[in-house]
Each structure stands twice: as C-alpha cells, then as structure tokens.
Amino acid sequence: MVPHLITALNGPINELEARILESMPAIERWFRLEWMEHTPPFYTSVDVRNAGFKLAPVDTNLYPGGFNNLTDQMVPLAVQAAMAAIEKICPEAKNLLLIPEKHTRNTFYLMNVARLVQIFTMAGLNVRLGTLDTEVTEPTTFSLPDGQALTVEPLVRKGRRLGLKDFDPCT
After folding, report:
1. Predicted structure pTM score
2. Is residue 5 part of a domain?
3. Which residues of the chain are modeled with pLDDT < 50?
C-alpha cells in the first residue's frame, strides 16, 4: 500500500507528475533496496518543493512534528513502519519512553505527541511520557481539543538510564 497525498491543487496531471506515477514501481523498488542496505532514520521528515518541472528536497527534520496531520488512512502505514523499525532496532522492546519537548501550551505539538503514542501503542509497545521540566513533580494530565488526554511524568535517573517511577523503558 502506497500513501496517496492530499493536496489543495486540483487539476490535470502535468508531465513531471505523470512520469513519477509511471515510474512508481521502479522508485518503490529503489527505496526498498536502499533501506535493506542502509537503515533510514527512524523518525524523520523531508519537505519537498514542486516547481512544476522539478522536485527538490528543501529541508530534512530529524525530530519532526506533524504526525497529527496524518489521515486516519495513513496511520496503519505509520504503525507498519514503526513495527519494522522496532523489529530491526530492538525486537525485544516492550516499553517506550517518549520525552517530548516542553511545548505544553502548543496544542498542535501535543496532538502530534498523542498521535505518536497511538502509533507506537498500535505497534505493540507500552508507551509513557516523561519530562525534564523540573516544575512537573507528579504525573500531570493535559486535555486535548479532540477529547484525548496526555499524562506526562517526571523523569527518574537510575545510574546512566532514564525512566519513570516503576517504568523501565526498552525492557
């Protein structure tokens, strides 16, 4: 299954788009072979600009937001990608500690974190959120506009490891 992106542009497919669509099997095969040889970044995004006659990557984000912008139809693909990466990186993992930025007032960012929690939970992990914010001394819940809630807990350092009270990630 290949994602079909939703755009604001509606109109006839131009020559560049037609060539890309015609070449899709070869492009997908190339990506598949490259990913077998080189592990791609697990968590990244690339902004691409379409000038009508050429495509160009203009920005790569190693820690992108925007998972909240995934359509419901895209979530299974994200779960599948997460499962494949987990299997390759740490197949025995069952717990995942996410440490989001301190954007507690930015609801779009929190919706992004909620979507990540959903993706990793659907991939079979027990997901908890930790924070470096020293003002958070006990589990704190943030309500989101869509009715979801996120609970952030203070981090606990045990030697060279970070975790939460009664929660050891990657075990």
Report:
1. 0.74
2. no
3. none
